[in-house]
């Protein structure tokens, strides 16, 4: 049986990268983009003319390692194949790197060409290579680059309060949200809504810059207020929650009975 002295201390330092990896794992800090600076960190795009995958400035954490770019970084996309394929931009941490620039670096992973191409999987091993996703796209046999999908995941985002609307009356409680990925919002509700009488209200103070465009009056996901059971029928599960036209979370009820207390958490996909 072996024990390891506390570190860092005046006697023992955090001298190994594996020590830092263990510290971040124990602290519960996920691998991904640092959203505490700006929700636009490392926004991806495609330079179709130059055939590059581009990320904007930002910070990323992978297994206790910090990687940063202060200006846009372009990564070359390999030439087109005879059939369409799906390519993926990742940040790759190489535990066995022999040079400083290759410890963490952006890398395009090319998919297998085919009639129905699929996205290449991430390599995430406990030793050696560990990749986190940035984006993916279709590299067409014609040379076109289309269908950019933002796949950034968040290293850490704190809970943000949602303002409880003052109308309708009888609505009390609390609500909050956090970003867990660029296309997933975690929303936590603890609400009491008495005698709704067919009223509609919304949470609107959500982080709009990264929200996709949603057509007006076109709900994307439903949840029963009392038990968070998801459904797709627009006329069921009342009272219900849905996305409004600009990303606002809206509640609707056509019942005159009390809803009562509702405490639940939802992970809401937004693409």
Characteristics of this structure?
single chain; 271 residues; mainly beta; Triple-stranded beta-helix; Immunoglobulin-like; five-stranded antiparallel sheet; four-stranded mixed sheet; flat
Notes on the structure:
By secondary structure, the protein is mainly beta. The protein has two domains: 27-155, Triple-stranded beta-helix, CATH 2.60.520; 160-269, Immunoglobulin-like. Helices cover 4% and strands 41% of the residues. The chain contains one helix and 20 strands. It has one helix at residues 17-26, and strands at 32-34, 44-47, 52-55, 58-62, 65-69, 73-76, 85-94, 104-109, 129-139, 145-150, 154-156, 160-161, 171-181, 184-193, 200-203, 222-224, 230-231, 240-243, 249-252, 260-269. The strands form five sheets. A five-stranded antiparallel β-sheet has the order 15-19-18-16-17, with no helix packed on it. Strands 5-4-1-11 form a four-stranded mixed β-sheet. Strands 8-7-9-10 form a four-stranded antiparallel β-sheet, with no helix packed on it. Strand 13 and strand 14 form a beta hairpin. It starts with 16 loop residues before the first helix and ends with a strand. The model is unreliable at 209-222, 226-237 and 254-260 (pLDDT under 50).
């Amino acid at each position: 049986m072996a024990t390891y002295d506390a570190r860092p201390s005046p006697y023992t330092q955090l001298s190994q990268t594996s020590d830092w990896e263990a510290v971040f794992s124990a602290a519960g800090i996920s691998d991904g983009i640092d959203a505490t600076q700006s929700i636009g960190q490392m926004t991806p795009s495609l330079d179709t003319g130059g055939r590059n995958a581009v990320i904007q400035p930002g910070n990323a954490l992978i297994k206790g390692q910090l990687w940063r770019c202060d200006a846009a970084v372009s990564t070359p996309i390999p030439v087109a194949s005879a059939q369409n394929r799906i390519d993926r931009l990742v940040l790759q941490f190489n535990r066995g790197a022999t040079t400083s620039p290759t410890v963490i670096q952006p890398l395009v992973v090319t998919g297998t060409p085919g009639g129905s191409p699929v996205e290449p999987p991430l390599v995430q091993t406990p030793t050696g290579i560990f990749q986190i996703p940035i984006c993916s796209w279709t590299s067409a046999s014609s040379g076109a680059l289309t269908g950019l999908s933002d796949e950034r995941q968040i290293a850490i985002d704190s809970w943000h309060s949602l303002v409880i609307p003052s109308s309708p009356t009888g609505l009390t409680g609390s609500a909050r949200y956090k970003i867990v990925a660029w296309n997933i919002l975690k929303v936590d509700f603890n609400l009491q809504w008495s005698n709704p009488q067919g009223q509609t209200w919304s949470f609107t103070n959500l982080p709009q810059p990264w929200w996709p465009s949603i057509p007006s009056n076109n709900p994307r996901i439903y949840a029963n207020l009392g038990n968070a059971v998801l459904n797709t029928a627009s006329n069921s599960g009342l009272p219900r929650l849905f996305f409004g036209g600009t990303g606002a979370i809206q509640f609707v009820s056509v019942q005159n009975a009390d809803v009562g207390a509702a405490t639940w958490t939802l992970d809401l996909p937004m693409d």
